[in-house]
Design goal:
There is one protein chain. This protein is mostly beta strands. The chain has one domain: Porin (Beta Barrel). The chain has two helices and eleven strands. An eight-stranded antiparallel barrel has the order 1-3-4-5-6-8-9-10. Strand 6 and strand 7 form a beta hairpin. The chain is elongated and about 70 Å long. The two termini are 38 Å apart.
């Protein structure tokens, strides 16, 4: 069921992008606007920062693991303003230590979490020469989540919000077909990471992340 929903989202997203490219190309033909577009693959490295204020859970130094994202981007520019939607598959890992677990003093077992998500960021920005400044929302759809705790693997996909909303602030540069970006992302909607099953309390971590991306335009106008 989730795979079917994912296919529908991807198909509808690219239909909208194709319509936008077509409409902007018509405008360009009328010499009203200076319009161009770029399409190609993109790869991102994500450095997350998670904070939890709790005496029951702690994030070890290695708890915020590096994540990766890859997919496709489309950049549509009208004069100096551009619109850039993306479709990405993302993977991430986190680790949490549970302090004095089950009331046993000094027993602090670790739980590892692995997540796969569909990311749909949308940037709206302005070109200043080859430099770019942008902002915009990002939508994260949970595809799968697994927890590894006390030698047991548990699927925790349903314990998380299926959709999380992020906001992004970014700086980028265009070098011919190459697009380099550095972004700061932070959550607008709280991810209900229900850890009640482990510590009998609800915890809502706060997360932000730094993202470096490199994209290459294989189609451009």
């Amino acid at each position: 069921m989730q795979l079917r929903k994912l296919k529908k989202i991807i198909f509808r997203g690219w239909v909208v992008i194709a319509l936008l490219i077509g409409s902007f190309s018509l405008c360009s033909g009328q010499d009203i606007y200076d319009v161009s577009y770029k399409v190609g693959p993109v790869f991102k490295i994500v450095s997350p920062k998670i904070r939890i204020d709790s005496e029951y859970v702690r994030i070890p130094e290695e708890g915020n693991e590096i994540g990766y994202q890859f997919g496709l981007f489309t950049k549509i520019r009208v004069n100096n303003v551009y619109f850039q939607p993306e479709l990405l598959i993302a993977t991430a890992q986190n680790r949490l230590d549970f302090l004095n677990y089950n009331g046993v003093n000094g027993f602090n077992p670790s739980a590892d979490f692995e997540f796969t998500t569909l990311e749909i960021p949308v940037s709206i920005g302005v070109n200043i020469g080859n430099l770019r400044l942008d902002t915009g929302p990002g939508f994260s759809l949970m595809l799968s989540g697994n927890e590894y705790f006390l030698n047991e693997k548990i699927n925790v996909t349903q314990e998380y919000n299926q959709v999380t909303i992020l906001w992004r602030l970014g700086l980028g540069v265009d070098i011919n077909n190459l697009l380099l970006d550095f972004k700061y992302e932070f959550g607008l909607s709280k991810t209900e990471e229900s850890l009640a099953r482990l510590i009998e309390r609800e915890l809502v971590p706060r997360q932000s992340q730094l993202v470096f991306s490199i994209a290459y335009s294989i189609l451009r106008d």
